[in-house]
Amino acid sequence: MLTDERLHRILETLEKNGQVKSKSLAHDLQVSEVTVRNDLSLLEERGLLRRVHGGAVHVETKIFDPTFQEQKAIDKDEKKEIAQKMAALVEKNDVIYVDSGSSTLFFIERLIENPPLNLTVVTSSLYVINEVVQGQNVNLFVIGGEFRKNSFNFIDAGVFPLVEKYSVNKIILGINGLDENGIYASNLLEANVKAELCKMDAQLFVLASSSKLFRKSLRLISTWRGTETIVTSTTALEQEPRLRELQRERKVDIV
């Protein structure tokens, strides 16, 4: 297992349980406790956890801090490349739905540096809202619902007639994993919302760095329809030959 994937798994466990134990992590990740301690030290240096005897616990962070969200991101360099690729695919007069997640945060930051003319952004992500309002000449529509602190996202499974009235033509989706069957999320409520987004009559772009590839998560969002575009990094394309198999067998585009 690659270091970035281990770090991602550790942060997921910490998010779920509030603490992690070195011995349990070593067993779950199938590595030595020395390796786990090194990983925990690295995450502590990034300010993402606090080491304690036998493991680690959450650190207190600001309730809203996009910088911290970026710092927490695994595969940061890959996600910056993915953001640049995705931004180049957005065109004049587009109406785009931007999902929550660190990959979509990198994307929206890159996009608003030089947005195309008459761009409209529809979102339920507080991070995305914060970035868009700092830009210029971008129309913004916000989808409300119950606020979820773990993702800084508003969730409401009944908002889709509202989404559809904006005639969204591109959906930029964040995920927790993908494999030969489809795409996955780690939260049931968010998975339901993402599943409805996948049914819309719009181009679907799936942002996926190396740590998300051929990795299942809690809930299958959608099986491949052959109309999706996976936006990934050069590193992922070079190191994961199964991507090309997926492209051939499931008829998805990959950039």
Supply the CATH class of the largest domain: Alpha Beta
Query: What global shape is seen?
Result: globular
Please work out how many helical segments DSSP would assign.
11
Number of discrete domains: 2
Relative helix content: 40-55%
How confident is the prediction overall: mean pLDDT?
88
Instruction: Give the radius of gyration.
Output: 18 Å
- Count the beta strands: 15
Name the beta content range: 15-25%
Which class do the helix and strand fractions yield?
A: alpha/beta
CATH topology of the largest domain: Rossmann fold
CATH architecture verdict of the largest domain: 3-Layer(aba) Sandwich
Strand order of the largest sheet: 6-5-4-9-12-14-15
Q: Report the order of strands and helices.
A: HEHHEEHHEHEHEEEHEEEHEEEHHE
How would you characterize the largest beta sheet? 7 strands, parallel
